[in-house]
Design a protein that fits this description.
Layout (H helix, E strand, L loop, with lengths): L2 E3 L8 H5 L14 E7 L4 H19 L9 E7 L4 H14 L4 E4 L3 H14 L3 E3 L5 H9 L1 H4 L2 E3 L4 H17 L6 E7 L2 H18 L2 E8 L7 H9 L4 E6 L3 H10 L6 E5 L7 H4 L8 E4 L10 H14 L9 H20 L5 H9 L1 E7 L2 E6 L7 E2 L4 E2 L20 E5 L5 E5 L16
């Protein structure tokens, strides 16, 4: 049976902790349940995931522990955002720490690196940042080998679908832009997003891709790249960046490139973006999973965010990225599933229980965010395909079955971020940078 958490029943946060109260024995007297974190310990992305998991674990331990009063112990393994180090990190968590569950803040390339180790060790693993659709395809093609994997961020295909809607409704219909040049970092993430946008943007939004410029993530001088983009004759730039978006964004403003720029750029997703660009990041928009910067939070998400800021607000990231929220709710879901299944082993009962976890968060009496999972064989109506173990997303307005897969945010030239699309979640209006108005 699916568990729905709503603010109406006042159990949005308490429901998971209530089932783990241990009774008379102190949790610290029992063997711990081990959770492993895998991700970069020096990146905002990695630390946001780690901190979200930490807060969830602190709450569960404060409620008496789990699985009959056992405490949860969190151990970490640093990937350094490097594929080889990521493989070593997963091996360390499995072989040295003998963890029961892993929560990942890895970028796409690193997750792809350690994925074969996950299959080998059969450790339940939650990915909170990686969105590569190819991993979900592995579950479609070989479910038994990959069934311990869950992705609680919308996959690339859902992301691209929302961008097509934004492209049609705002860029093409409202702004009149019909041609785009793609600037893409040379990464697995970049290749995946580029492929989806190229295949969907033209036929569905009526926007032609006139050129694609692939560049090294270590690039420091974007003047020749911007010159090539302008020479393409496109109406706007679509930036795809997951590694080093601060540099390209700040140079876009510094050079006052004479064309608008939007896209998918991870650097824009954190509150530190404005500081990182030296205040030269205004006028750029990007797709973001929810909750994003500039996003109006529901009460339960705000409660978590307030705890985060109180605990970590003196160091970056000062506010959780979307994957921090994902780690918080996903960790609680994983342990709620373990309670129902009698633990993380054997694997099949836990997988079945995890598939039935469903967190529904409301704002002003309507569904605002949802943390649930697509089940094997369940077909998403718009795309006509399955997304086993991917977070349940709604890519058809009015977004009343889980909220959209993403929102579009824009950094304004006064240093404030706003959500500009879809209209239901908008906190501001899409506009051009001042030098183009």
């Amino acid at each position: 049976m699916t568990m729905g958490w709503t603010l109406k029943t006042l159990t949005a946060v308490a429901a998971l902790t209530a089932v783990v109260v241990a009774g008379p024995l102190a949790a610290q007297d029992k063997d711990p349940v081990k959770v492993g974190f895998i991700g970069s310990l020096s990146s905002d992305t990695g630390k946001s995931t780690l901190r979200g998991a930490e807060i969830a674990i602190e709450e569960l331990n404060a409620a008496g522990g789990v699985l009959g009063g056992r405490p949860i112990e969190l151990v970490t393994a640093d990937t350094g955002e490097d594929v080889t180090e990521g493989i070593k990190a997963y091996e360390y968590l499995a072989e040295t720490e003998n963890v029961d569950f892993i929560v990942s803040g890895s970028i796409d390339d690193v997750s792809l690196g350690w994925l074969p180790r996950m299959v080998e060790y059969k450790i339940p693993t939650l990915d909170t940042w990686t969105s590569y659709i190819g991993i979900i395809d592995k579950l479609v093609e070989n479910y038994d080998d990959y069934k311990m994997y869950f992705m609680n961020v919308a996959s690339d295909e859902a992301l691209a679908t929302l961008y097509v809607d934004f492209g049609k409704d705002i860029l093409a219909d409202k702004m009149g832009w019909k041609k785009v040049v793609i600037l893409q970092e040379d990464t697995a993430f970049g290749n995946a997003i580029n492929g989806l946008v190229s295949q969907l943007l033209a036929p569905e939004a009526g926007i032609e891709v006139v050129d694609t410029i692939v560049y090294d993530p270590a690039t420091v001088d974007f003047s020749p790249i911007f010159s090539q983009a302008v020479a393409s004759g496109a109406d706007f730039i679509y930036l795809i960046s997951s590694v080093n978006g601060q540099v390209v964004s700040s140079q876009y403003v510094k050079f006052q490139v004479p064309m608008p720029m939007t896209g998918v750029a991870v650097a824009l997703l954190g509150q530190e973006y404005w500081e990182d660009t030296g205040g030269a990041g205004g006028g750029i928009s990007a797709l973001s999973p929810m909750p994003s910067v500039g996003f109006a939070l529901d009460p339960a998400s705000k409660e978590f965010a307030d705890k985060y800021v109180a605990k970590y607000g003196d160091s970056r990231p000062k506010f959780p990225h979307f994957n921090g929220f994902n780690a918080y709710w996903g960790t609680k879901q994983a342990f709620a599933a373990a309670e129902k299944a009698g633990g993380f082993e054997p694997l099949d009962p836990w997988v079945e229980a995890m598939l039935n976890e469903d967190v529904v968060l409301e704002k002003d009496g309507e569904l605002w965010l949802r943390y649930g999972f697509w089940k094997p064989g369940e077909v998403e109506e718009r795309t006509g395909r399955t997304y086993p173990h991917n977070i349940r997303f709604d890519i058809t307005p009015p977004y009343d079955d889980g909220g959209p897969s993403m929102v579009v945010i824009q950094w304004n030239e006064d240093g404030t971020p706003t959500v500009v699309y879809p209209e239901k979640y908008a906190t501001g209006a899409f506009k051009l940078p001042s030098w183009l108005q």
